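Section 3.1 - Work completed
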Amino acid sequence: MITTKEIIMNKSVFPVMVCPYTDDNKIDLNAVDALVQWYHDCGCDGIFTACLSTEIQHQTLEERVLITDRVVKKANEIASNGGRKMTIVASGHMADNFEEQVKEITSIHATGVEAVILISNRLDIANTGDENWIAELKKLMDAIPEDVVLGVYECPYPYKRLLTDKMLEYIASTKRFAFIKDTCCDAEEMAKRVKILEGSGCGLYNANAQTLLQSLRDGAAGYSGIMANFHPELYNWLCKNVDSPYADLVQSFFCMSAFTEYLAYPCTSKIYLNKNLGLPIKPYSRTKDYHLATKYHTDCIDQMEYLANHIKSIIGIK
């Protein structure tokens, strides 16, 4: 059985992968390959696919498995050709029904991902309390193979279910969890969570750029958020250089630039990846009409990129 400590690297970046589509609304597998290669070349230690940025709420289980399988295969191909081994984690956990959830988890696990990420609001869906959430988690763990390493994502869709101390204490006690995607956006709360998880093999990955540096200094394992679809090199740099004299400068850039998340994402990211970087990714999305990414939106992204490049030149990233 793989242990949690063997698969997750400390102080690392896991981009929340966007999903490229073709003109006829199919998953564009060639573009998926290009995106995985780009994440690798930017220094990312892992990828979180089949998540909200991947638009799983608008995908069939077969599609969620398809993109996850392709990401795993491409990452393995890169590693076999002398590239860095990336850790691939995935969710795809959307069903309301228990039996369907078991099918989702086992199907995603079968692709070869190193952890399957549960969505916190899919347990105790009626949000009745910690005890019922933990009871449903126990039931789910009993129904899946013991070698499935798990994680939890505080996904904001269809509603955000934040983990309580009691939930985290149970998660830590199982030694089956490796990854928490934290969306509480509260540095003090994250510091407390890190202490609860200490020694469990489970890392806390902050999704919020504005609190990233403080959370890293308090022991968070890394970053897993939207902005790694724009300038992952800078997020990788900060995760590994929290004591640099430039760390606060980079963090200040993150604080302001991350407000672009509220533009027409994920279309803005797909347009940026194609127009600015030349990746073969089209702007299509099942979440938003890509026409919502107006010239105002793309101008904002271009200005962000101009400043990101200036920051890179200051800290020595080419």
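Second construct:
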Amino acid sequence: MLKNKICLLLIYTLIIIACSGQTCAQRQVSSLEIEPFPVKKTFCAEKIRVNEIFSPDGIVVKKGNLFVTDSRNNDAMIYQYSLPGFHCIYQGGVKGGGKDEFQISPTLCKTVSDKVYIWGYTPFLIKCFILDNNHMSLEEEIKLPISDRIVNFMNVVNDSLLIYSTFPYKLNIEKVNLNTMQITGQILIEQKQKELFFDENRGYLAANDSLIIYAYTYKKQIDFYRVSDMKLCKRLVDKTVVPHIIVNNVKESKFCQRELVTGKRYFYIRCPKGEKGCFIEVFDYSGHSVAKYELDVLLYAFDVDEENGIIYGYNGDVFEDGFLKYTIL
């Protein structure tokens, strides 16, 4: 009898370790202070007028092209512009239930690959496109195994993995092998309250081919996870910033980090700046601070052309007739 009890105790212990291993691993990594930014510059936007009428909610730069999603326009939800001239090569993508139509609002998946991944044709389908001389052609269709829910912050890694947040259901991060269609990894992020939107551990997710970056919304903290084993390997913090969250009150809550973009060399975090404008904080993948740019307009959506040193963004309240361009080099 005693032997059976010991065996049961060991089994329960192993289950607890398996379920909490990720959380324990997160706590074992010591925090590093965010370094002062060696470069600080202020920029004013150049306004680029285009003929098309839209309200972008997503912007991605790929191989000399600017791709835009507009979830409000049911007759043209995808736009493609050639750079630097902003010539509209394509506009289309209809909301509907037919073939090649969008059943839900389209999303441009984040990736450091030169391919373009678009989700939204169905809740469970991503289409992969390749670019050749500005022409976009379909390479493959990827059917997702996550058929029971909508996910956010989709990142395609090494053209073979999908990493995403389970928000708004949970804060966890999951990894799917796109070759086997199996969920092969998970990062457990502690939920501290029922209202996830106002949870202290809510954040923005992006990834390159080796690291997952998680920038917290309400506190100045950035976590680095390895793509290979989904383990926390580095944490950056600014301990002088104290979270200020008023549940169900967006105006009174203090946001620290509002958007995250990954490039091949650096990643970029958009941070609030009082009533007008915003900051773009630049880090390398070793966690070193690179630069802090003060912009005169708050960018609702943005991406960075690293090769040419340009930030492209949009704010319809300031300039609704086109794009905002910042040349940072």
